[in-house]
Amino acid sequence: MGKHYSLGIDVGSVSTNIVAIDDNLNVAEKLYLRTCGRPIDALKAGMGRLINMLGDDALIDACGTTGSGRHLAGVMIGADVVKNEITSHAVASCHTVPDVRTVLEIGGQDSKIILVRDGVVFDFAMNTVCAAGTGSFLDRQAERLGIPISEFGGYALRSKSPVRIAGRCAVFAESDMISKQQTGHSSEDIIAGLCEAMVRNYLCNLAKGKKIEDPVIFQGGVAANVGIAAAFEKALVKKVIIPQHYDVMGAYGAAILANEQMSMTDAKTRFCGFDAINDEFSAKSFECADCANMCEVVQLLSNGKTIAHWGDRCGKWDGQSVCVEKVRGKEEVNEKHTVSITNY
Questions:
Q1: Does one domain contain both 111 and 228?
Q2: Same domain, yes or no, for 214 and 139?
Q3: Residue 69's closest CA among 332, 305, 227, 281?
Q4: Which of 88, 117, 152, 196 has the fewest Cβ atoms nearer than 10 Å?
Q5: 105 forms bridges with which residues in the sheet?
Q6: For the residues of 301-336, what is the DSSP string, one character each?
Q7: CA–CA separation, 298 vs 310, rounded Å?
Q8: CATH label of the domain that carries residue 125
Q9: Does one domain contain both 131 and 72?
Q10: In a domain, 162, yes or no
């Protein structure tokens, strides 16, 4: 008899994260992969690696997805729960630090702040417009400076006199960094200034008018940067907690939500099985001209057959999504497993 797990999958623009938790909601295995602009390939590769980590006899009782590619992932693997990033990150944070009140999250392409009161999301804000406060911008600057991103934060901590960097815009920040280099400032001082500029940008854009209270959690891929963490503590004059699984908290939250959902019902999981990664998936879109909305509808195909639609506003295409379940090596469409994508 194999071990039982719940899966959480977070498909983002920069990374695809997968977490398997046991019945006690503890992380058994986790994966952090680069999406590289190919979410279907990244998810298939991740699921292939996960089954090797868990063992062929692993039993999946629940599965949840989140992130910008949550609908795509939800149909591909058969999710029981499809939730937005705010909910998933908040759930993981509350499980990790039960009395958490402020969640700071910076990912590869966006950033968020979540205020929690008594275990419930009280307020939140997201920034998906400017790249200056995201991990992708840090990656680009590390590459330009010829410094491994894993060492970037260490440079900031060695700074003796951080310079002032204009951090409201990625273009201006990079221009300012080049200007400071040309005037002879050290890489340590420039990087420390960049970290402080990113934190100023974050607090001005997302936290403006919000009361940041302890305990404060900092998560997302950028939480690995000790320079950013130090800059947050300096600006907030508060201790910032970096959880053990800071890099996969979205996936962790999705796994917890799926576990809780399936624990409250006798229904069988929609999870299609690890063999589903062997299918050929592709996506395309078309413009529906049946009403004035002119919705761009996304169509997901498996082995050439349409298995899902989403993206419409009027609901015409909603409910036409199905999970192709592997049953004794044969593909069958199980009607009771029909998934309505936009209802999550």
A1: yes
A2: yes
A3: 281
A4: 117
A5: 112, 219
A6: EETTEEEEEE--SSSSSTT-B--EEEETTEEEE-GG
A7: 5
A8: 3.30.420.40
A9: no
A10: yes
Q: Which of 207, 242, 277 is the last residue of a domain?
A: 242
Asked if residue 109 and residue 82 are part of one domain, the reply reads: no
175 shares its domain with 269:
no
137 falls within a domain: yes
* Cα–Cα dist 37/62, whole Å: 27
Examine residue 93 and state whether it is found in any structural domain, yes or no: no
From first to last of its 344 residues, what are the pLDDT tens digits of the chain? 679 999 999 998 889 999 999 999 999 999 999 888 888 899 999 999 999 999 988 999 999 999 988 988 998 889 999 999 999 999 999 999 999 999 999 987 788 999 999 999 999 998 866 666 677 888 888 888 888 888 888 999 999 899 998 766 777 778 888 888 888 899 999 999 989 988 988 898 888 889 999 999 999 989 999 999 999 999 999 999 999 999 999 999 999 999 999 999 888 999 988 887 778 887 888 888 888 778 888 878 877 787 777 777 777 776 555 444 433 233 443 333 333 333 33
Per the structure, the complete domain to which residue 105 belongs is given by 98-242
- Cα distances from 166 to residues 160, 173, 177, 200, 292, in angstroms, run 19, 5, 9, 10, 43
Nearest CA to 245 among 44, 91, 53, 45? 91
Beta 4-11 vs 59-66: how paired, if at all? Answer: parallel
Domain boundary among 242, 263, 296: 242
Partners of 120 in the beta sheet?
117
Cis amide bond preceding 215, omega within 30 = yes
State how many domains the chain has.
2
pTM over 0.70: yes
Do 163 and 205 belong to one domain? Answer: yes
Paired strand residues for 326 = 331
- At 1, the amino acid letter reads M
Tokens representing residue 248 in the block = 């996969």
* Residue type at position 67: G
